[in-house]
């Protein structure tokens, strides 16, 4: 009975880790898409050149 519980616990942990990693990949792709949109749609500066698209 104990080995079965250990295997089920391991499967549950691996499923949770897999789901978390997939969610992190999806979040990374969304952030990358927003970054690319911000990079491509940046406005021009006063001198006619491209302005900095980031705040810092």
TrEMBL record:
The chain crosses the membrane at residues 30-49. It comes from Streptomyces sirii. Keywords: Membrane, Transmembrane, Transmembrane helix. The keyword Membrane applies. This is Hydrophobic protein.
